[in-house]
User: Fold this.
Amino acid sequence: MLPIVGIGAGLVAALLFSVVITGSPLAVFLYSAAPLPIFIAALGWNHRAGLVAIAAGSAAVAVSLSLTAGIAFAIIIALPAWWIAYLALLARDDGAAHVEWYPLGNLLVWIAGTAALATVGSALIMTTDFEAYRAVIVRIIENLLGEMVRTRMIMLPADTKVQDLAQTLAPAVPIGIGASFVMTITTNLWLAAKAVQLSGRLPRPWPFIPSTTLPRQALLILALALVAASLGGFAGVAGAAMTGALFATCMFSGLAMLHDISRGKAWRTPMLVSVYVALVVMQAIVTPLLALAGLLDSLLGLRKRAAPPPPPTA
Assistant:
């Protein structure tokens, strides 16, 4: 049963990954769901089913597209999903019938690290020449900005050249890619875990997600990532990607804090609705604020003084 589940999950993930070559908006949406089958297999059956899915999916993409595409599937989609699912089911028994599951805050840090590695891996698959990689990124930004200017989505000052702006924005691209990987991995993990829980196959009890707090070690990692981001070459890409990924996890932590401290309060529903609406219409403003809240919570333990005790897990 386990090999069948793994092979099926890998083939579905490979199909979702491969449709992105059509370039349609639906294909991009399906591509973002490519880790979902591997998450479901690894969470619902065990990590060995996830390993089978990696092998089957990578082989299918390599045969149908190319060897490079198969490697990209493994590095960007399959291995991150398998590893995070494996960590999510790690448990420690204290010998007194109490099982301690892997903390969600630590899992978020690993998601950030996995996202950074996937970002660097995708860059190295593209080319091992950093200047060539940078030229590709600049060209993509130029084309995007040129199209936005042409359709009047944005208006640039008269003295601003698209080429110069693209050169300025290029170093920030790995930050955005790292953050987007975190969003994708976290969303697929939640969807897969919920689906497996509803089927009755989730080995661990459903965690109290609002209590998620990043460990303080994450702040040290963030500081090191900021230093690495100032370096040149692919080391700088790794640092920038890790910076963006950690800021995304801080945003999730800040959002969890709002859910946590508002439990039982009359203003909970209007506050949360306002925050989520603001995340959609004012993302550039609200996201950094939530990330800052998550950072301060990890550093100062803000919710320890404001949040009621978490309910017992089933």
Observations:
- Residues 1-89 form one domain.
